[in-house]
Write a structure and sequence with these properties.
about 550 residues, mainly beta, 18-stranded antiparallel β-barrel, about 15% helix
Length: about 550
């Protein structure tokens, strides 16, 4: 098995949005796979193949639906598992190509074992969005479409590359299109009021030496347990970074240093015209993880945010304590410390938690001092009904203290282009989230979720200015004239409720239908929102 993994493992990473991670997390909770780090995504194709090999050895423990899902994954990761392409077809290659087949599809692939392989796919997606604004009695809709491609490959079993790009267009109401999170901050779409075009790209180079992996480029990173990633989610634009990972059985060390988009200002020059200036901003991350036993995992890590100067070499060093380095740099930056754990002592039940300390003065604990800033996240993932019904259940709670992720210097807050790097939650908030997923078949699933959040917003004056700063806005840190004491959920309480139902169907390999129905009700300081949103999506990877 070790020789097989060494020969055929691919060094490219599998997108954090791929459904294989839901499957692996379920297998982790059922204790069918071991040493799986679900705190950090994405993983390489080689790593995923290693976990699939563990599952194949224990296939008799799977229910009927998961056995069929495993068969689908054997097709998707066939080359990574076995070094063969018997269940693959190429549009530009030899043999018959059928778009409606259950084989893995490529525009073109090439393979010379142990030396070089290349896989090219065409991407296409169409989406229809309906927004029924109940509060304002408006019904709006839009249609989106994009085409693009993906190129990936591995050289000498050690070095990999990946490039994805696409162009799209909005046909209909642009405001409704912005309901898609990735379009809300897309530069081309928001560049001009009448602009309907959008594009996106990501790519990276990798070097995989089994225990040690290196990566340079851009893709989506998720950090945190549960469906709502409290530390690093998909709420903000992707960013470029350089990083590496050391992983050996019970021990894991991860590191990256990335470039963010800082505060944006606009000016006008009589010769050059309008000028956009984006401040330099950077993020650093490292974490030590330990598998204390097969039932208990523990991690400790740090973030550092800094900006308005070139890359700081002291933060390029992965093996340092960011907080002490910050002090040596004359306390100009924003460091955060976190602890995380997960537990599998009860079969079929995963318990997890994260505690982030943005800042702390121990002598002032319990006094309400604004500088003691914590984020607490706890949740569970249950597959206890696995042998009875293919139903998974998740529950999560997040509490974010006032001023968490903020900073007195705007360059140091925990944002990318003004968007929270973590979840959608603002400081001074709490969230209750629950989700149930039912696997009707290996290709058809139904997921329902409900979230309820409370936010202590900064009270506003009639003219819209800040009347009182209670630490409820991530872009506004504590000022010298703000109160020295503040309490959790102080301020104007805003309430948000959201319920959604998602149906996912893959009738043919790499052709997917998604139906998402969402109800949103918000009682905010300045307005009340009630809406029903519907997303119908057809995507194909050919």
């Amino acid at each position: 098995m070790l020789l097989t993994i060494s020969i055929f493992s691919q060094t490219e990473y599998v997108s954090a949005s791929n459904p294989v991670y839901d499957f692996l997390e379920r297998m982790e909770t059922l204790q069918i796979i071991t040493d799986y780090n679900s705190f950090e995504l994405p993983k390489t194709r080689g790593e995923i193949a290693g976990y699939l090999k563990q599952i194949i050895k224990n296939e008799n423990k799977l229910d009927d639906v998961d056995k069929k899902i495993l068969q689908d994954l054997k097709v998707e990761f066939e080359y990574d598992l076995y070094g063969t392409l018997n269940n693959s077809q190429s549009m530009l290659g030899k043999g018959e190509y059928n778009i409606l087949s259950q084989k893995a599809k490529y525009l073109y692939y090439y393979n010379q074992p142990e030396k070089f392989n290349l896989f090219i796919n065409l991407l296409g997606e169409g989406e229809v969005i309906f927004n029924n604004d109940i509060e304002n009695h408006k019904n709006l809709s839009t249609t989106l479409g994009y085409v693009g491609g993906v190129i990936r490959g591995t050289i000498l079993n050690k070095f990999g590359f990946y490039l994805k790009g696409f162009n799209g267009n909005v046909f209909g109401n642009k405001e409704t299109a912005m309901l898609r999170k990735d379009l809300s901050y897309n530069f081309k779409l928001s560049e001009k009021p009448d602009q309907a075009f959008f594009d996106e790209t990501e790519g990276y180079a990798t070097a995989d030496f089994d225990i040690v992996k290196f990566k340079l480029g851009q893709d989506r990173i998720n950090i945190g347990y549960g469906p709502v990633k409290a530390l690093l989610d998909d709420n903000s634009p992707k960013f470029d970074y350089i990083g590496f990972n050391i992983s050996y059985k019970f021990f894991n060390f991860s590191y990256f240093h990335g470039k963010l988009l800082g505060n944006t200002t606009y000016s006008f020059d009589s010769t050059a015209g309008s000028i956009t200036t984006v401040a330099e901003k950077y993020i650093g991350y490292h974490r030590l993880g330990f598998n204390i036993s097969k039932d208990v995992n523990f991690g400790i890590g740090e973030f550092i945010i800094y900006g308005d100067r070139p890359i700081d070499l002291s933060y390029l060093n992965p093996f340092s304590f960011y907080k002490s380095v910050e002090h040596q740099n004359r306390d100009r930056d924003n460091s955060m410390l976190f602890f995380d754990f997960k537990n599998f002592s009860i079969h079929g039940l995963k318990l997890y938690g994260t505690l982030l300390i943005d800042d702390i003065t121990i002598s002032k604990l319990g006094t309400g001092w604004w500088g003691n800033q914590f984020l607490f996240n706890a949740g569970l993932y249950s597959t206890n009904l696995y042998k009875i019904i293919p139903l998974d259940f998740k529950f999560e709670y997040i509490a974010v203290d006032p001023y968490v992720f903020t900073h007195r210097f705007i360059r140091n807050n925990f944002t990318n282009f003004g968007y929270n790097l973590g979840s959608f939650l603002q400081p001074n908030s709490e969230l209750f989230y629950t989700q149930a997923s039912y696997r009707l078949t290996n290709r058809l699933s139904l997921t329902g979720d409900f979230s309820y959040s409370i936010h202590g917003a900064n009270p506003l004056s009639p003219d819209g200015s800040i009347k009182q700063n209670v630490g409820g806005n991530i872009t506004l840190g504590h000022r010298i004239f703000d109160s020295e004491t503040v309490h959790f959920l102080e301020g104007f309480l805003e309430y948000s409720r959201a319920a959604s139902l998602t149906l996912s169907y893959e009738p043919y390999k790499q052709i997917n239908f998604y139906f998402n129905l969402k109800y949103i009700s918000q009682s905010l300081q300045e307005k009340t929102n009630k809406a029903v949103q519907t997303f119908l999506t057809l995507s194909a990877k050919l």
